Amino acid sequence: MMVELRSGARLAAAACIALSGAMACRGEKRPAYSGPYGKQVAETVPRIEAAVGLKFKTPPRVEARSKDQVREFITRQFRDPQSLREFTGIESAYKRLGMIPDSLNLKKFLVDLLAEQIVGYYDPKTKVLYVVSGSPPEAASITITHELVHALQDQYISLDSTQKIEGQNDRTSAAQAVFEGQAVYEQIAAMLGSNNVAVNLPGGWDRVREMIRENQSSMPVFAAAPLVIQETLIFPYLSGAEFVRNFKERNPGKAIYEDMPLSTEQILHPSAYFGKRDNPTSITLPPLKSGTATYQNSLGEFETRLFLFQHLKDQNEAVRGATGWDGDRYELFNTTGGEGIVWLTVWDSALDASEFFDMLGQAVERRYGVKSSGPPGAVSRTYSGAGRSVQMTTAEISGRPVVVYADVPEGASGDVLDLSKVKLQE
Known about the structure:
Elements: H1 9-20, H2 38-52, E1 61-65, H3 67-77, H4 81-96, H5 106-117, E2 120-123, E3 128-132, H6 137-154, H7 159-163, H8 169-192, H9 197-200, H10 204-217, H11 220-223, H12 227-250, H13 264-268, H14 270-274, E4 282-284, E5 292-297, H15 300-312, H16 315-322, E6 325-335, E7 338-347, H17 350-368, E8 380-385, E9 388-397, E10 400-409, E11 423-425
Parallel strand pairs: 1-3
Antiparallel strand pairs: 2-3, 4-11, 5-6, 6-7, 7-10, 8-9, 9-10
Helix pairs in contact: 1-8, 1-10, 2-6, 2-8, 3-5, 6-8, 8-12, 12-15, 15-16, 15-17, 16-17
């Protein structure tokens, strides 16, 4: 689902554009578009095509929707069986990892948050761009420009199928960053009439980043959101637009969809994508030794960073601890005493794994208020307290350094993964 943030990247960019005095193109013959905002669509389409370097295969459609219809649309997304499985699993994982409160009704919260944010959205299923009736003209105008990029994207790569890859959270987050990042970047370029966005925007790209955060935090539901929700909503716009800027500078004239990034690591670190390509390690977990498995997915480097920051409250340490990530896979499972999680991460080097292992231990100590029962420097540590038991291990699989984290109800076994049967594929 492509949802748009009302006071996010689009409005921040608009404020900068207004300062620059950018004017719409005039004097061109344009096709007539029926329906609401037809005149604006006719004016914007050629600028979007010029900025992206692709032509619309079919004319874009725009329709109006009431706020109640938008809220119903958001609610309906959670009823789709696959989306519901993914949402329920990710919510449980976030709670098990201490990234959102156990008491939070995440579905209701997200419906409220998105209803607060959305001015418009492009729906890949209907191929229609919807704008909320009664939206401020400036917000509607910016939304249409942004959403037209999504409509154009969908004619060259299926947005719906790309976003529906099950159990691959990190990969879909990277794809979302490309789609939203390109929409932000090309929207600005189209409105400025230039591809050199960083140069032409007053204050440059850093000012856009500041304004996105300032505008988002001024919204009450968003401001109350847990860190992981705030940051994963903002990430595609900020980091995605920077990735797109890098791509255009290094690959002029090349379509970005021909070689999509496969991980948030490649979005965050230009060298992992544009240098010697560092694709993530694929992990296949074997059947658990005990417990009933319920759900599998990945966090990726970006959400691993968020996990560390959530518990350590130190941005520099969180970035350092997640750097060197090369793949991860977690599995939720039920025991007789309640739910558990096992999380295996693969690292570029033994030093990266060791740093993460140490920070992971600090995160457990701060979260549960416990100390490790193992001696300093041990390759395995166990923590017990607050009704939970955590077991952490460093090891090698096929010569690759890994860290295994298992959090189970007190009294249950944390030794749930047979490392000799884990399969890694680069």
